[in-house]
Amino acid sequence: MTWRNGWPASYVDSSHSDPRGCANLTLMAISPVPWSVPMGPRDTEEPHRAATPLELFFDLVFVVAIASAAGSLHHGLAEGHLEAIVYFCLVFFAVWWAWVGYTWFTSAYDSGDVIFRVLSLVIMAGSLLLAAGVPDLFADGQSALVVAGYSVMRLAMVSLWLRAAHGHPEGRRTAMTYAIGIAAVQALWLARLAIEDGRTVLLSTFLLLALLEVAVPYVAERAGRTPYHPEHIAERYGLFTIIVLGEVVLAAVVAVQGALGDEHGRDLVPLVVGGILLVFSMWWMYFKRDHAPLFAARRTVWRAAYAHAVGFATVAATGAGLAVAVDVTTHHAHATETVAVWSVAVPVGLYTVVLGVLHWLGDHDTRLALPAFVTAAAVLVVAALGLTLGLAIGVVVLLIGLVLALAVAQHVVASRSSEAAGLDDA
Q1: What is the C-alpha separation between 318 and 294, in angstroms, rounded?
Q2: In 3D, which of 220, 199, 214 has the Cα closest to residue 93?
């Protein structure tokens, strides 16, 4: 069968509209959505490939689960419960892994038909179900609701891979490996619900099953590479970064709103300014380079994809840290100033390290990644000195924000100098 952008050529040639909105197909005021079409591979070199409205909606729904995890992390740290960090990592892995599975699948196979849309909506519903169970997991270390939501998402992915196996004979072995692997690991997650006692056992079994989840793509891709679109993947990762940064802004704003009118309101001014500098600088630092080449090269694609997981998690954790800083500043938390400062400094530092790793992967030159590592070290040093000198939490956050702002300024100056030097050489 001949394929054109994931659709049978016969379907396209009959002048049907593409419900994804592809420009090369006939446009109509209302695009009829077919019930079912064979799910073939998308063109890996399709020009101007962009995220669809369904994919954008998908990301917005998924960020609700991330916001729920970040909110529980905020409340746990504010009460001085450091084990909340562990539970945040567990929940974030579940949300991120489900998002990754769908994102890479749709980059390769996106039929846009009714069945595909319904299964996509089912996955979104599963993420909301997972989000609803997050508080229980933070409280008890186990949540049937979280597992149920995760099961809905993963079993819907099994259905999508089975459709791909049926519609794309050349990639059937890879698609079936994915379907069988996901289903097998999901059965183990459901069996894990039988564990009632022992947080150590729960944690160790979670780590074991997480490793099995990560191993599925490694095994499946050995049978044949999934026909994903590198530029499309880079855009999806970039858009998700923006949405998670938006969650950071929301968390900080909600925390500040709750403190308005408080006698300590003036102490929040430097904290708010520092938080704004952090969010703006984190956005700038991420988008100062094109990440598509990282996803196009076999040597870097896996490492870049997994490095982004840490990046997403640290962005969400930064929002929780800013909320903790607000609570401690206004004396609405039991946590110490030390916990509040490190709740911001550690995720920000890790975020800059991740960016340094991405620069190193893309440029193969440690010198180009060095500014990111220096920035991370400077963030931690400023936090430590601020605590040692007894500076207010808001002042320390402001100084950390200034460190990132200076890193952005250094990049702008250095890039302009390099451009000017190139023009002179020409």
Answers
A1: 25
A2: 214
Counts of helices then strands in the chain (DSSP H, E): 14, 2
Rounded to two decimals, what is the model's pTM?
A: 0.87
Extract the runs of DSSP E, i.e. beta strands, from 301-397.
none
- Listed residue (224, 101, 105, 229) closest to 174, CA to CA: 224
pLDDT digits (tens, 9 = 90+) for 267-304: 788 998 999 999 999 999 999 888 888 888 888 888 89
pLDDT value of residue 149: 95
For the chain, give the number of residues.
Answer: 426
Is 152 within 8 Å of 143 (Cβ atoms)? no
Q: Tell me the mean pLDDT in the region 24-30.
A: 50
CA dihedral of residues 409, 411, 412, 415 (deg, nearest 10): 160
pLDDT band at 7 (very low <50, low <70, confident <90, very high): very low
CA torsion, ordered 237, 243, 249, 253, to nearest 10 deg? -160
pLDDT at 131 over 80: yes
331-370 per-residue burial string, b: 16 or more CB within 10 A, e: under 16: eebebebebbbbbbbbbbbbbbbbbbbbbbbbeeeeeebe
Is the four-CA dihedral 297, 299, 301, 303 of positive or negative sign? Answer: negative
Provide the 8-state DSSP code for 49.
-
How many whole angstroms separate alpha carbon 352 and alpha carbon 403?
A: 11
- Helix 144-167 × helix 114-140 angle, to 10°: 150
| Report for 2-6, 126-130, 265-269, 410-414: range of highest mean pLDDT | 126-130
Report in angstroms the alpha-carbon separations of 298 from 140, 154, 221, 225, 274.
41, 26, 11, 10, 39
Which pair of structure tokens corresponds to residue 174?
Answer: 């890879």
pLDDT at 261: 63
Tens of pLDDT, residue by residue over 28-60, are 456 677 787 888 888 888 888 888 899 999 999
Q: Residue 245 corresponds to which amino acid? A: L
Q: In angstroms, rounded to a whole number, what is the distance separating the alpha carbons of residues 400 and 376?
A: 10
Rounded distance, CA 283 to CA 15, Å? 42
Above 50 in pLDDT, residue 27? no
Beta bridge partners of 8: 3
Burial of 84 (0-12, 13-18, 19+ CB in 10 A): buried
Of 295, 319, 304, the residue nearest 63 (C-alpha): 319
